[in-house]
Fold:
Amino acid sequence: QVQLVESGGGLVQPGGSLRLSCAVSGSMFSIPAMAWYRQAPGKQRELVAMLAAAGSTVYGNSVLGRFTISRDMAKNTLYLQMNSLIPEDTAVYYCNTPTFRFSWGQGTQVTVSS
Structure:
C-alpha cells in the first residue's frame, strides 16, 4: 500500500519561502497525477497545485505565480516550492492524487507569521 509522507513545513515570516516534500513509498511512474492540498483551521481542504504525469500543471488562484509544483521521479518525491508567503497560506499541507487515491498522510504544518 502506498504511503505519503509530507515534510518541510515550519514557521516563516511573510515574504519568505519554504519547499515542501512528499515522499511516495511506491513508484510514481504508475500515478497519472499528484497534487498538493491544504487545510486551514475551520476551513475545508482545498487544492493548491496539481501536476499531471505529462507535465501539465494547475494552480489555485490564490497561489498562482508564487508556488511551483514539481517532482523527482527517481526519488519518488513530489515538491512544492512556496515563495512570497503570506499569512493566508498558513495551513496543514498534504499531498495525494486528484481522486484521493491513497490514504492521507500526517501533513506538514506551514505557519506564516511575523
User: Anything to note?
Assistant: The two ends are 40 Å apart (CA to CA).
